[in-house]
Amino acid sequence: MKTAYLHVDYRRLEALLFVPLFLFRRFLFALTAVYLGSSIVAQVYLVHYASLSLLIYMMLILPMENEVHNGVQIFNESILLLLTGMLFLFTEFVGDPIMRYRVGWWLIYIIVFNLAVNVISLLFHANKTIQKKW
Question: Which string of b and e fits 30-44 if b means at least 16 CB within 10 Å?
Fold first, then answer.
């Protein structure tokens, strides 16, 4: 049996923890949005530390089937950690609205870069799969 979507190494128990941890982080995001709506700083802290915790887990355990999938997941989690760190700059910590505007554009640039890397990775993987079948 091979996992088709997540590419989690299902033969290792510590790797199987990735799915519940990932889902718990998503649940935590939803809870912070609903119940901590008045405290933006608390939201950012929780989201940032949840991302940091998952990144540490992924770097220590390497839960995916191969190095490529682990690398892509660690890259994505690192970008998410960077973006959540940038969210602090949208609080009253930075009082200048022009600076917040510039930070917003950098946030968009980083998201586009992340999307481009993931699309290239997907195309590379699809090309490799097609070549195997032919």
Answer: eebeeebeeeeeebb
Q: Is residue 4 part of a domain?
A: no
pLDDT tens per residue across span 93-110: 888 999 999 999 999 999
Please name the amino acid found at residue 14: E
Give CA 33 to chain center in angstroms.
18
Q: Is residue 7 part of a domain?
A: no
Closest by CA to 74, choosing from 86, 62, 91, 89, is 62
Q: Is residue 72 part of a domain?
A: yes
Q: Specify the pTM.
A: 0.85
54: its two tokens: 């998952």
- pLDDT tens for 5-53 read 678 998 999 999 999 999 999 999 999 999 998 888 889 899 999 999 9
**Amino acid letter, 47:** V
Give me the torsion for CA of 38, 110, 4, 17, rounded to 10°: -50
